[in-house]
Design a protein that fits this description.
ten-stranded mixed beta sheet; hydrolase; 12 strands
Length: about 400
């Protein structure tokens, strides 16, 4: 079952031509709206058996589980939840860091299954001034140099501006994906996949890199639940680029997250695959096949055969909050496609959960964020990166959502 883009887009779709798709010898990537092909999208409001979805029960017990399974089978693979044990060990506790404004906790999360174990390091700062009151928290899934999340603060980066978040009254946490699955096609298996879940590697819909990173974020949430300094009911998961893809999959899989934030996640993240704008399914499967389940390869140069598109991933996060961020010069990630995905996915927030918010049909101007209840979007100036401007917008959104 398919449904068309909003009527306001019909005139644009009629003008859009045929994209130049990748060939075996040379990939040609489209950066022109006029060359985006016409397309139709799978309908979140119709089940695989043709049942109309119109109530919260229909959504929670029929359509949303279907959508999650479709993404598991065709895009990201399973995220196994079985384990035999988990322990949290604070290996470094320092009070009065950041000139007395914060407490540092470095925590080893040890997970065991079938006689094997793996340890993930979680870096957490909590505000000192709210030591008797749990703080809302932002978790960053990072694939960049570990220096970006330096717990000593000898190295500081706008990619993870911990001081800014502490000043705003938020706890701030991060883990590096290399602790759960290397961001490398040669070594991605070496961590949780070979150690804890080797059976997944033999499955066409088994967990791969992005699913492993989502699994790591879920273990961080397990820690937040038992830390009295953190308000796990007000937790946000954040990812940039490939980390943004994993953040969206985390928010879809794990309903404990109050806010899911995708920063410039592009193809396989927030952007609609069927637009074939910038990075395509073919290109991402060629360069980063280890991010996705093996079945995703079927949809290279064949996006229209996908039983899902990324607006449905955003829809699956409803009624919880979702924020999509783009950058003006990051055409590879298809900013318009990211916004359209949020726009179409947010129909579930409005139609099923009756939120009195409606995003405008067109993306906002650069540096004019939209914060409407559980829906957020901004496009900033500049290139592909996670910056202090992005973080400031995320914090403003959370302040408004939490009424702080």
């Amino acid at each position: 079952m398919q449904y068309p883009i909003f009527p306001s887009f019909f005139c644009l779709i009629a003008l859009w031509g045929t994209i130049h798709l990748a060939t075996a010898q040379h990939a040609v990537f489209n950066y022109e709206e006029a060359k985006v092909p016409s397309y139709s999208l799978p309908d979140p409001f119709v089940s695989t058996k043709g049942k109309p979805i119109s109530s919260i029960d229909d959504w929670n017990f029929v359509r949303r589980p279907e959508i999650i399974r479709l993404f598991e089978d065709h895009v990201y693979g399973q995220v196994p939840k079985d384990l035999d044990g988990m322990t949290f060990t604070t290996v470094n506790l320092q009070k009065d860091v950041m000139d007395g404004r914060a407490v540092l906790k470095e925590v080893d999360v040890l997970v065991s299954r079938k006689g094997n174990s793996l340890t993930m390091r979680l870096t957490v700062f909590v505000p000192s001034r709210t030591a008797n009151t749990p703080s809302p928290v932002f978790l960053l899934i990072t694939h960049r140099s570990p220096d970006n999340i330096d717990p000593t603060r000898m190295v500081k980066s706008d990619f993870w501006p911990a001081e800014m978040l502490i000043e705003r009254g938020y706890a701030v946490a991060a883990f590096h994906v290399q602790d759960v699955s290397d961001d490398n096609k040669e070594t991605f298996r070496e961590d949780i996949l070979e150690t804890l879940y080797p059976e997944q590697l033999a499955m066409a819909n088994g967990m791969r890199g992005l699913g492993a990173w989502a699994w790591g974020a879920m273990r961080a949430m397990d820690y937040f639940v038992q830390d009295p300094d953190i308000d796990e009911k007000r937790a946000a998961v954040v990812g940039h680029s490939r980390g943004g893809k994993a953040a969206l999959w985390t928010g879809a899989q794990d309903t404990r997250w109050a806010i899911t934030i995708s920063n410039e996640s592009g193809c396989g993240g927030a952007a609609l695959s069927r637009r074939r704008f910038g990075e395509t399914v073919t290109r991402i499967n060629t360069n980063f096949p280890y991010w996705f389940t093996d079945n995703f390869e079927r949809y290279s140069d064949n996006e229209d055969a996908l039983p899902v598109d990324q607006h449905m991933l955003i829809a699956s996060i409803a009624p919880r909050a979702v924020y999509v961020a783009s950058a003006q010069d990051d055409q590879w990630a298809d900013p318009r496609g990211e916004y359209l995905s949020l726009l179409l996915g947010s129909r579930v927030h409005k139609s099923i959960y009756n939120f009195p918010y409606a995003l405008p049909d067109e993306p906002p101007a650069v540096n004019n964020p939209i914060h409407l209840g559980p829906l957020g979007y901004h496009m900033r100036e500049g290139a592909h990166n996670l910056t202090a401007v992005d973080w400031a917008n995320f914090l403003d959104f959370a302040d408004k959502l939490y009424q702080r």
